[in-house]
Amino acid sequence: MLAFLSQLLITCLAVALVVSAITIPQVSSPELASPPRADAAKVVVAHLMVANTFHYTPADWEQDISLAASSGLDAFALNIGYGEWYPNSVEAAYTAALNYPNFKLFISFDMTSIPCSSTDNADAMHELIAKYRLHPSQLQYKGGPLVSTFGGEHCYFGKESVNEGWASVMKRDHPGCTFIPSFFIQPAASKDYSVLDGIFPWNSAWPLGPTDISFNYDREFISGLRIDQSYMAGVSPWFFTHYGFPYNKNFIFRGDDWLLATRMEQLVQNRNEIGLVEVITWNDYGESHYVGPIHGDQPGSEEWVNGFDHQAWLPLLSYYITAFKTGVYPMGKERIFLWMRPHPTAASASDPLGRPANADWTEDYMWVVALLDAPGDITLSCGPSNEVTSFTTPGLQKAKLPLKADCQPHAAITRGGVPVVILDPQEISFKMQPGRYNFNAYVAASL
Questions:
Q1: Neighbours of 248 (CB within 10 A)
Q2: How far apart are the C-alpha atoms of 409 and 148, rounded to whole Å?
Q3: ∠204-311-349 over CA atoms, to 5°?
Q4: DSSP states of 249-277 as a string?
Q5: Which CATH number fits domain 2-27+37-326: 3.10.450.50, 3.40.640.10, 1.10.240.10, 3.20.20.80?
Q6: What is the DSSP pairing of strand 104-110 with strand 140-141?
Q7: What local confidence, expressed as pLDDT, does residue 37 receive?
Q8: What is the pLDDT of residue 332?
Q9: Within a 10 A sphere around the Cβ of 354, how many other Cβ atoms?
């Protein structure tokens, strides 16, 4: 049957249906809007596109797993689609993870690519799950091996209903899988699927409009769960994709207002209602929301990805992961995190694809997060724009700077006018007249 899966499982590009200063206290005791759910220990994972690992060596897998584990992540969700080479890549990942006993993996079936109309489809998927359900590197959650999806809410697998179809994949063993998929369903519908052990609303990671992100979308799903179902929240730092034919994906989601930081603060505040968090993504270069290194196989995204390393987001993410798991924001080394787009949203470029859809949802700012161990100032500049913001308390602080002209960014933590931490990333610049549209983010962090 694995041979059948090899024919069953093509590389795909998953399509998501998709204040100038704020103070975060050093120690927090989040207030809950509703009673805690009966979930296991807090788990934070990252979505990994196996499609982009075709040429991975064992050393590549170890590099990614080691970096993810050291950043506080607990597991990779291995997104697999339709392609005969996927099983070999999955096996390589599980083998590499054996060297990191505290880091786990689980399968996330990409149902925009995998067929699901017959019992043979169900058998092929079940066989892959069965191969790894007791593997030392498999993530176990609430008594069973965790399995997820991207999509799949319309899959019947030859049965009378979606519920029966997925049960034929996930629940034929004892104990069955802990099934927490990313179904694109109405928030109140989760409780109606007995096969679901939880829900992962993919689009919870971004504001799907020209507004700041809020926890309201999550709360709709949480209120629709049965008491035995878990909630997996999405978090993402960015979204920009710029494909022409045949994908025709040229749009952004709003990444403003310190999206990664703001979203994680919401999840920390509401941590007692959330069992798991999934970072979108580790390596989806095509949609510009990767936090891992740029290596492996890019899906034709080099034009807007090369030169835009996002790994500086990882230590910031690590800070928030600790707070999510413990409920306490940790003390840490003083650091500055900075990100910005390379050109104005209203710029005119000679680009055959044209300006991306939703471009007007974003504003021209440099976004900065700083970790302070004492009161101090955050000094920002980029060309003619300059701003100093004073903070009277330590902890995580935010500031932003409008971008108005060609410039290179500068950020510093100062006390009494003396810089104590400086960030001058030479590889980052803002240009008023770009050659092509690129709404990806430059990201940098001080040492």
A1: 10
A2: 40
A3: 75
A4: EEEE---TTTHHHHHHHHHHHTGGG-SEE
A5: 3.20.20.80
A6: unpaired
A7: 54
A8: 82
A9: 12
**pLDDT mean over 260-273:** 98
Per-residue pLDDT averaged across 104-129, rounded?
97
Please list, in sequence order, all residues whose beta carbon lies within 8 angstroms of the beta carbon of residue 346, skipping any fewer than 6 positions away. none
Q: Which residues lie below 8 Å from residue 431, measured CB to CB, with a gap of 6+? A: 342, 343, 406
pLDDT for 29 equals 30
Fold topology of 335-445 = Immunoglobulin-like (2.60.40)
Identify which of 208, 170, 202 has the alpha carbon closest to the alpha carbon of residue 185. 202
Check whether 177 has a pLDDT greater than 80: yes
Strand partners, 410: 381
Query: Quick check: 195 and 179 in contact, CB under 8 A?
Result: yes
Instruction: Count CA atoms within 13 Å of residue 79 on its CB side.
Output: 28
Look up tokens 């990806």; give the residue. Answer: 440
